[in-house]
What does this fold into?
Amino acid sequence: MTHIGINMCEPSHLSAETVLTPSHLFAETVLSASHLLAETVFSVSHLFAETVLSASPLFAETYQ
It folds into this structure.
């Protein structure tokens, strides 16, 4: 009887691990993707800001 009880506990432990592993991987994937997205947005906005800043003196000289 004890042997059957132990066997009945095993599948639930395995199913918990099976559910936890994909969700952990999914969470890591989402974190990596959002981190990359944040870096990309930051880089693009930084480049845009630099472009506007470097272009504004040119515009000022052109329109004076």
Notes: The mean pLDDT is 80. The chain is about 95% helix and 0% strand.
